[in-house]
Amino acid sequence: MKRALYAASLTVAVAAFAAEPYTLDRNGVFWRVEATSSGAALVGTKGSVEVARSLVPFPLGLAGQYDSNLQLVADELSGKVVLAWQRNFSETASDVVLAVWHEGSWERVEYLVRDAFLHPRNPVLRLAQATSSYPDPENPDTLITVKESFALLAWWQGSSEQQARLAILRLTGEPEDPGALEVRDVSTSPGIGFNCPQPLPDEAVERPAFAVEPPGPVSHLLVASPDTCLLFVHEIRFDLAPPQQQDGGISVEAMRRRHTPIFGVRKVLPVTKELAAAGTRVVLGGNLQPVLYQVLGDKLRYTVATESGWSEPRTLAVGPELPLDKAIALVENLAR
Q1: What is the pLDDT of residues 103-138, one digit of tens each?
Q2: Does residue 9 come out as left (phi exceeding 0), alpha (psi in the -120 to 50 range) or beta?
Q3: Confidence band for 246, pLDDT divided at 50, 70 and 90
Q4: How many other C-beta atoms are found inside a 10 Å radius of the C-beta of residue 333?
């Protein structure tokens, strides 16, 4: 039940709390997103009854274009369904798209990069939620509770100069709010690390990965740096911001406090040669100590991050008493 990164095959494994092309909401609606010849389509069914089907606006245009890396989450707080995917115009030109479905219609459809030659790729989507309380300015004995939810979408882009990017969409905000969507660079900080002794293969570094955590006020994102041979674990924390001061005092609108993201680097690890090996998977859990593992015939080979670096490679035998799926679950559970 961990989010997995396939460094060679570029395939993301099914994981709890992770974005997949399908999800089940608490109202009993099973949502799925399909890549059709006309573009991405959202389908919702409840029991055996289809309750929604809609092609996302901005359908595919020219022949040869297609959608991939489809992601889908349903947010209980806002009642919105969020889709994200990679729209491919050619083998080296693409964009990342974010769409929001709410109460039977498309509330938002965003091309996030708008420069196909940056080749944005490998998007990964997750939810974040934050709840805070503060005294009512007009009645200090009464607490005002603020509940908000956010969609976090990370991806990789660039060729000669590469970087990871992160979009944050406030789902509980108004659709027309220009500040509801924020996109920022989450690459490594300048001056940290050292030059790689040898280039790492692209497939080993081009996939940001969120930690496997229930939606909450803190999220962690694993990003590799091809320039420094380091793995960075970024922390995104949502804290309640103070009311904004405006000329002539504080207006009613300014008194509405909102959660804002605060960024930091929680952990830095060297990229190991195992990460670049074909078929290696990377799992990041809430303990922020990644686990790398690789299936090699009748055994699993894995290494675990510690406070002092990476452990020596270890093996776990697979056989009748320990089937492969059970062995993988055991190793992935090391990333708690």
Answers
A1: 999 999 999 999 999 999 999 999 999 999 989 888
A2: alpha
A3: low
A4: 13
Rounded CA gap, 326 and 262, in Å? 38
- Amino acid found at 299: K
Predicted TM-score (pTM) of the model is: 0.83
Say if residue 195's pLDDT is above 70.
Answer: no
H/E segment holding residue 90:
none
Distance between CA 328 and CA 165 in Å, rounded?
A: 30
How far from the centroid of its chain's Cα atoms is residue 203's Cα? 17
Please state the separation of Cα 277 from the chain's center in Å: 23
Domains of the chain, residue spans: 10-270, 272-336
Q: At 3, is the pLDDT very low, low, confident or very high (cuts 50, 70, 90)? A: very low
- Helix or strand run (H / E) with residue 142: strand 139-157
Q: Residue 67 in contact with residue 86, Cβ under 8 Å?
A: yes
Nearest to 1 by CA among 266, 244, 196, 283: 283
